[in-house]
Design brief:
alpha+beta
């Protein structure tokens, strides 16, 4: 996130998400039909802003399968192609420059989510997203 000031980069990332949540969700939903919602949090383990892509419970993706590598490539491609500030033409900034991303799937568990793409070292505050 080189364009943000270190003192308030997470505040700016949160403000951008709040202002553009619907556009961000549409971007992902246009590429993967099982997107249910998008979320945001700042991980207390690494103080980084994360987009959480939430799949519905009918989504065919399952944890710990080789197909998750394909999913990761799709998600990364979306993040690298979505121009966060379209008016910046000489030095564009993409979602990938602002956020890391994680993917969860809604399920019937007590936590309510199954992790699909979620590094073990990343923690969500208050056990959010079943972590």
């Amino acid at each position: 996130m080189p364009y943000l000031n270190p003192e308030n980069e997470n505040d700016k990332a949160k403000a951008y998400f709040d202002e553009n949540k619907d556009k961000i969700a549409e971007c992902f939903a246009g590429c993967i039909e099982c997107i249910d919602d998008v979320g945001f949090f700042i991980s207390p383990t690494d103080n980084s802003p994360y987009l959480v892509i939430i799949f519905n419970d009918r989504c065919p993706w399952e944890p710990f399968t080789p197909q998750l590598y394909t999913l990761e490539n799709i998600m990364e491609g979306i993040m690298k192609s979505y121009r966060a500030f379209p008016h910046l033409t000489h030095a564009p900034i993409y979602l990938y420059d602002i956020y890391d991303f994680l993917v969860v799937k809604r399920d019937g568990s007590e936590a309510g989510f199954t992790k699909l793409l979620w590094p073990n070292e990343v923690a969500a505050p208050d056990n959010e997203y079943g972590v």
